[in-house]
Amino acid sequence: MDTNITKIFAIKYPIIQGGMIWNSGWRLASAVSNAGGLGLIGAGSMYPDVLKEHIIKCKQATNKPFGVNVPMLYPNLEEIMEIIISEGVQTVFTSAGNPKTWTETLQKEGITVAHVVSSTKFAQKCVDAGVDAVVAEGFEAGGHNGRDETTTLCLIPNVRQHIDIPLIAAGGIATGAQMLSAMALGADGVQIGSRFAATQESSACDAFKQEIVKAQEGDTQLTLKELAPVRLIKNQFYHEVQEMYQNGTTPEALKELLGRGRSKKGMFEGDLDQGELEIGQVSALIQSIPTVQEVFDELIVDFNRAKERISRL
Fold this sequence. Notes:
alpha/beta, globular, TIM Barrel, three-stranded antiparallel beta sheet, about 325 residues, 2 domains
């Protein structure tokens, strides 16, 4: 496949792996890159020294391009960026912050920069900031998300009308047919998270992966908008949050309930009752825990099958 995305990232397929906290270690990132996509190490769940270790191991595991996803709301940001630059990482996906903050600095080091947004307004700000590509993520996506609840189906064509730089669609994409749909709407490529979270190479715990497989339609919900909107599987912690809403809660009370480390507790340590279990709506389509290469094989076969089906209309 030859698109703007394959060109700027020097990859075979226009498939980017989401940089998901507690899921996206060096094993997942290198496996995605080796399969022909762009793997991303998720820096959001890593202290700087841990991130450096994952970058070094990823370089040892693949000679293909890979990158680092950096949510800019986390601490130690300057140290993280210094490590990325010193280790020669060629691609950075930033999110949860102002793209102007780091884009120019990174690009001066020869680093390609993409930024994740949930609205057309912020996509335009990315263009103004000079990013190389924009990831437009619909609210179907797992993890932290946009407050406006704009679906990928609506978001991608609107963003495409307003920007002319490479566009990556994210949110609710796990099959080749969904990938083709996103590209028909104007995307140059796709970012896939939940499908890669439930692979053998994902750094998430096995118990969480099994919860992804078990999830059905309606089993996830966007919540905690007063803090940072996040899509969660409806477990005991989620229901405690909803009970607080019903009783008239405050942001301060929600923050106290959330505490620290809930996402690690759920996705990495396997506390399925009290942990945050972040996953997208598309989890209802995920019914197995394959290798990354098997996911790519399925994606490409399904993409071509869908394209052939459409061509007969």
